[in-house]
Amino acid sequence: MIITKTPFRISFCGGGSDMADFYREHGGCVLSTTINRYMYLTIHPYFDESRTALKYSQNEIVEDINDIRHSIFHCVLNEQHISGVEIGSTADIPSGTGLGSSSSFTVGLLHTLACYKGKYISKGKLAEEACKVEIEKLGAPIGKQDQYAAAFGGLNFITFYKDDTVSVEPIITRGTTIKQLQENLVMFYTGITHDANKILSEQKRNLTQADKTGNLIRMCELAGAMKQSLEENQTDDIGAILDEGWRKKRELAGSISSSKIDELYDCARRNGASGGKLLGAGGGGFLLFYCPKEKQALLREKLHLRPFPFQFEHDGSSVVYIGDKYWEDAR
């Protein structure tokens, strides 16, 4: 058996500029970090080698991999001609909550299969291939940031160039600055799930509007400003950067926010948070706030939402177990 784990991410600034319709014209960038919540995948030869078994939120056992219903499994296993295996996925967090779970799954699956075939795959190649699967082959109306975050891991400034190339630049700052940033970030689960593809499709259609393009350009500037603040070991303005970024983002599409989310956000701002945002495409999932430690108890009391503790994660997709039986079979 082989087991991999691939982290989820939180995106601070620049989300939406990683979509091709925008970055091919203007260039894009995001600042994000992976966290210690993961997508786990396991693989081993199936007992009945004439069949392929898949375990996720549903169970599938098929004799022909063309009959697989799960779109990502179907695409990847058919392309790589892999059958006669049992693959299972388990996640720390459900899908539709804004932490990039779909791309973490795709990156994790590609990594798992490469290891199963005894092949090395670089982080850059892993992210690139995941983008091809989700965006080009399956036609998902999403950007590239989640795949690169999941593959590389860490706190990074990710740049999307007009020629479709991508660079991942780790944020270089003091350990005390990272510690302070982590301590002043708090996350809450709204209990609302969303359809990211539906929201992103609306956002993509709106990119032809000049004001929406202007918003994304400003959001990229804010990502750069946050990068500079962290590199200069300044965290006092992080809340204000997040606040402006969220206000710009919610104007990109009507479905990004809602009256309930706006009410929660305004409540947080009145009770200690200097800024924040709804993670992911919008519509639901997790609210992230920058709030000094001494004010966090009041914030938790007033919001009446489930707190979600987390820590920054420094590694990307990784192999955590390779059983001896696999190597015996390989020989």
Jot down its keywords.
9-stranded mixed β-sheet; 13 strands; 331 residues; alpha+beta; globular; 12 helices
Describe the structure.
By secondary structure, the chain is an alpha+beta fold. It is built from twelve helices and 13 strands. Strands 1, 2, 3, 4, 5, 6, 7, 12 and 13 form a nine-stranded mixed β-sheet that branches. Strands 9-10-8-11 form a four-stranded antiparallel β-sheet. β6 (155-160) and β7 (166-170) form a beta hairpin. It starts with a strand and ends with a helix.
Strand content: 15-25%
Number of strands: 13
Q: What structural category characterises the helix and strand content?
A: alpha+beta
The average pLDDT value, as a whole number, equals: 92
Q: What is the count of DSSP helices, taking H or I runs of 4+ residues?
A: 12
Major sheet attributes: 9 strands, mixed
Calculate the terminal CA-CA distance, rounded to whole Å: 15 Å
In short:
This protein has twelve helices and 13 strands. It is an alpha+beta fold and 331 residues long. The strands form two sheets. Strands 1, 2, 3, 4, 5, 6, 7, 12 and 13 form a nine-stranded mixed beta sheet that branches. A four-stranded antiparallel beta sheet has the order 9-10-8-11.
Task: Give the arrangement of secondary structure elements.
Elements: E1 2-13, H1 20-26, E2 28-45, E3 52-55, E4 59-62, H2 71-80, E5 85-91, H3 101-116, H4 123-137, H5 145-152, E6 155-160, E7 166-170, H6 175-183, E8 185-189, H7 196-206, H8 210-231, H9 238-249, H10 259-270, E9 275-278, E10 286-290, H11 296-303, E11 306-307, E12 312-313, E13 318-322, H12 324-330
Parallel strand pairs: 3-5
Antiparallel strand pairs: 1-2, 1-13, 2-5, 2-6, 2-12, 3-4, 6-7, 8-10, 8-11, 9-10
